[in-house]
Design goal:
With 84 residues, this protein is an all-alpha fold. It has a domain of 53 residues. It is built from 3 helices and no strands. Helix 1 runs antiparallel to helix 2. The longest helix is centred in the N-terminal third of the chain and has 23 residues.
């Protein structure tokens, strides 16, 4: 499965969990445990959004900062010189 399909499946599972937990929580008064259950489900949704909202980082950086650290620009290395 692709990332989008996996994320959609995870969101669907969180929606189903939220519905199931809401059904169970209706049988209990508004206690710390019932509130915690609601907060935990909401946190799952937020964590998935945070995880999938981040862009993947490159495995390695081919242009390290040391490459540009001296301020050298290849297009401006000598006056009157054009691009080859």
């Amino acid at each position: 499965m692709s990332l989008e399909q996996d994320v959609a499946a995870a969101r669907g599972a969180i929606d189903a969990l939220e519905r199931a937990c809401s059904s169970v929580a209706r049988h209990f008064p508004d206690t710390v445990d019932a509130r915690r259950l609601r907060v935990d489900v909401a946190r799952l949704r937020e964590d998935l959004t945070l995880l999938c909202g981040a862009r993947p980082r490159p495995v390695r950086d081919p242009y390290a900062a040391s490459f540009y650290g001296d301020g050298y620009d290849q297009l401006m290395d000598a006056p009157g010189r054009g691009i080859l």
